[in-house]
Amino acid sequence: MAILHAGIATFLKAPPVAPERAALDEAGATVGVLGLPYDSTTVTRPGASHGPRAIRDASSHYSFGGGYHGDYDVTLSDHLTLVDCGDVDGAPGRAQETYDRAERALDEMYAAACFPVLLGGDHGTTIPGARALSRRLDGPMGFVMFDTHLDTAPEIDGEPLSHCCPAHRVLDLPNVEGRNMAIVGAHGAANPKLEKDVADENGITVLTVRDIDRDGIDAVARRALEVASDGTEAVYLSVDIDVLDGAYAWGTCGPEIGGMTGRELVRALEIVGAGPIAAMDCVEVAPMLDPSGHTARVGARVVIDVLAARACRLRDAAGAEAGRAVTAS
Length: 329
Ligand SMILES: [Mn+2]
What we know:
Strand content: 15-25%
Shape: globular
CATH architecture: 3-Layer(aba) Sandwich
Largest sheet: 8 strands, parallel
Bound molecules: manganese (II) ion
Structural class: alpha/beta
Number of strands: 10
Distance between the termini: 44 Å
Number of domains: 1
CATH topology: Arginase, Chain A
Radius of gyration: 18 Å
CATH class: Alpha Beta
CATH superfamily: Ureohydrolase domain
């Protein structure tokens, strides 16, 4: 197809497959994209519920050649069988019910050995995402979150399910310890002192934009992965698009100046994405706050880059396996 945005706008034009074990098994799916178009827990500007559809639309511009990524010199379709599981139907005003529905879909995807890519939605999206992975693991879980904000609030006006709370809800999980949690890119004037205290008291590693300026993005990204993978079985990766400077991604609830650059995020995703990531999300893309469509395009790239890093990881593992077979024979 010559016109990239022709056809049905699934993620990278992947076939639509219901988030049900039998259907995913039949499709041989190894990666499933699942939208959670829900922004009812937002404390300021809503709009992220329109994120999944806009990210899918933007992804069509990267849908040529089986998803070849030149930076990685890898073709996604050589190593991943991608499907689009559509959206979880949210319950307006009822976050718990909405998250329960998301977790049921994610449980099916895990049962089919499918790597879930959750498209938010506001950052509350991470709560069902992390809960579903946590439940699936036998051992400890690590967590890496890219975010301008700490999102460690215990609750907002008595409500524990909020886009200000995902890191705290992850901390609450029975197999997660603060020492295995890393928040990358925190900065700016919108982080309450309480959230900093929660991070400090629980031993969460906060790697700020100033740390990136001082140590470089490679060192910071490696540190985040080290923290999250130290003694854990798998890592959940959450990318809040607002981690970028507002100049790179302004279509989001709470953009800030002084954030990470596009190059820094791209590099960090390459390093973290090469690790033992078992699920990811990309949240807080609010397309109506960006009439140019650019922020959704950035959201698509975040996912594509992590998938490219995953494809390289699988390619390298297969290469090592083949090498062992040759040596043994
Ligand atoms: Mn956030």
